[in-house]
């Protein structure tokens, strides 16, 4: 059997077996094994990704085709790594074999999406991925899962219509064939001939694809499912949900560029130094950064905070993709990797906290750093990485993105990404303060540190954050391979864009030197005496543990007040209202049309006959 | 290797000394505006020495110590990347975006240390500091974007070199707008009125600094001195033409001359900030956010758009 097929099927098979056997110990082993196979294969196939592997099967009248190239290998690597760590953490947190089945099924779905080589295979695995993740949410919260399902279905059928239009015109699903046909079409129109697709049709396909991929990526204003779905499920699974599943949307956008970039560019023209259709994507990305970030800062639930943060970070990737130069594409891919690494880590940390304390709201937590030092250390790395603190991977990818956007003379997008980095800082410190520091509620006094499988999973991702941060050249080299030329120059430690340089190793060395100098000053001073958290300045008053001195609720109240006007507008509410309106309409139609009166049914028949008579049947 | 080490040591000592002098100048100027005599210029050094010499220090845990050390370490790191006349050691990597970020990360250390103390005033101060950071980021971002787009490079050193040929940044209209916005941002970065909301003496008992005493506070004083030096230096480099003196035959004379020119420019930046601080009362945090998201943002965004045309 072909490697690619094994890679896609293995998790699903393991999931089904784990579900059927349902024996404690065996299902965990099966699950981890199922997730380890794609990771192993991704490593083995690394060398061969350059030459490309193709495989095709005929199944139910459809060609199922898979192909591995540099780009899909990059995404496979992300999905397999995050999938493996998430599954490892699920050993501790999974409550039933049901979760093993669907978590592994969605891993299969994601791998299938990245490996698909034609639109139909892409769609089928897209649906498997959506269904499995829906089932994961359904187990925990019905309302959240339905919201996710409705929007996903909306997106998926938008995609189906777009695929249908393409197939009707071109008669093929195959990526390379579609791509060539689109190229030819763009050239034909450019030379004054008659294209297959009119301008209106091209715009329609573009719009449908934006909806389809925007939903999965959580782009504003289609992001409303994400905060509920990310929070109302097994948090270990969310690490994969946010880390890898959302990348399917990103991959979709890149696919749209590959398939019909030339056509779209030609039909809609350029905007400043980028394309008009790309600028729209980038602008949506910019709004996503700001909206996601601001809402993250105002959340009172640890899972919701990271859900919004995940939305915000995906906005960066969309900005990079939208700007559309080779450099900005690379920046987007780089950030996709670092987002998977630090957000995967963050959700594992959340999973650990939820697993050990059973609480999710900021108001119930505090002072956990002493009780869970390992998890705190992991959180420290994740915080530095997400906030974009050199020398971790979050900074390297953001830096490339900043320079890619600004060097294209796009000032408004530049403003968006700057704001996004500050807001990232803001909500992370809030998380740090409320969860790790300050007084500890007495019911958390015997909290233990992370269990071993979760600790290993967190360790793997944290190592990735540090390693790719100090040696960003490792990633840049892979990205250059995708484009077949040296877009980001430099060595293992240096990123060189021509107009800007970043040396991660030198920076690390100087940071260490700086800390050593500061440490010398510190250790030259007199000894320190450890004092308890209640022995603190409270306007000169004595205090005991009965007073709550840690601000846990509404930490960013002034921000809320400043933004009061903007917060009154909510897309969540808009969708709810539309949903309610549709329900009312259905109710009205039901009571008027199916009114239980035999005579009115006779009238319907008469009207239909009248219409047919007028038609001349 | 030895040469790099010597240069680094020189930069560090020079920045610390001048930074402390800056702190002294701020106190003297403020005093003179109030018709007082004020302390001697070396007063901040004495204060810091006293703090470092305390016989007993307290701690609230590992992060409480590490945060403070990290803050100073990160400030030293930022300093190394900013071109100081001809002396900079990492100036080839002195990227605009990098330095902008590096100037912010010491705050992370201070926040971590302050928050781990569990003091409610520290929490409140951290909240205000973060919202100030968020507020200034918009005009700051646009100002940096304007610079990068105008010069087409992100290298601070190349921007300094370009200004030798084309005149100071502030003589070009788009960059003048950006410079005004950046100068307003500096007020918050220095922690001066009307934007000293984060520290807010008299209002929230020094905010994040409330629990620090002894050597922790001493280290933060050193950090503040170096940060003052680094921030004014960065501003002088990107907007006021920096300094590259080559008229003398001897490299040492050239270095001294460029340091002197930079010093004058830095003091000019400092004086504007100090004089502004002496006459304005403090804003509340929501006023600050609304202010920064209005005028400086409009100015800087206009500059960025003009620079990109």
From TrEMBL, chain A:
Residue span, NADH:quinone oxidoreductase/Mrp antiporter transmembrane domain: 116-423
Entry keyword annotation includes Membrane: yes
Membrane topology summary: Multi-pass membrane protein
Localization per record: Cell membrane
UniProt superkingdom: Archaea
Annotated TM spans: 71-91, 98-116, 148-168, 203-225, 237-259, 279-298, 305-327, 333-355, 376-396, 416-438, 450-471, 502-523, 600-616
Protein's recorded name: NADH dehydrogenase subunit M
UniProt-listed InterPro entries: CPA3_Na-H_Antiporter_D (IPR050586), ND/Mrp_TM (IPR001750)
UniProt keyword Transmembrane helix, yes or no: yes
Example of a GO cellular component annotation carried by this entry: plasma membrane
Keywords: Cell membrane, Membrane, Transmembrane, Transmembrane helix
UniProtKB/TrEMBL annotation, chain B:
Entry's localization field: Membrane
Keyword terms: Membrane, Transmembrane, Transmembrane helix
Membrane-spanning ranges: 6-26, 62-84, 96-117, 129-154, 166-185, 225-250, 256-279, 291-308
Entry GO terms, CC: plasma membrane
Domain of life of the native organism: Archaea
Tagged with keyword Cytoplasm: no
Record membrane topology: Multi-pass membrane protein
Main localization, broad class: membrane
InterPro entries hit by this protein: ComplexI_Subunit1, NADH_UbQ_OxRdtase_su1/FPO
Protein name (record): NADH dehydrogenase
